[in-house]
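As a warm-up, study this chain.
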Amino acid sequence: MTSVWRSGAGMREWIGGVVGGSTGGEPFESGVARCATQCRELKSENGLAYVPTNTWLGNRAYLSAVLIAHNLTRELTMRTAEPTRAQTTRRSALWVFPRMATVRREILQLAGRLIKPQGKLTLSMAANEATQQRILGALQSIEGAA
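Now compare it with the structure written out below.
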């Protein structure tokens, strides 16, 4: 299936799909594929595969929290990494975004222990230079945004 576009008054509007020959609608179709990838990631890695509550407001709040977490992960990537792509006619993202599970595993789910030496709560972790640089870089970019 290819797409049919109508142009006029400086705008392009998608009319619908046509079976058969190419009409130049590939940018729309690749955009649909990117959207489907993000929806699949939200379902599989962020808990949107099930309905958490029996109320409309509870589900709206849950969806909002998941989308905020997703957007914050994207923003963290954009602030801590240089763009890896150039601008294209398809308007692809300049960054290659890691999956949410990867970010969670690299930053949040690290082996550590909360200890209380001299009454002050402290997070104790193994000495790992790469992990330390990643966390400190993320914290600095968050502080710079605030």
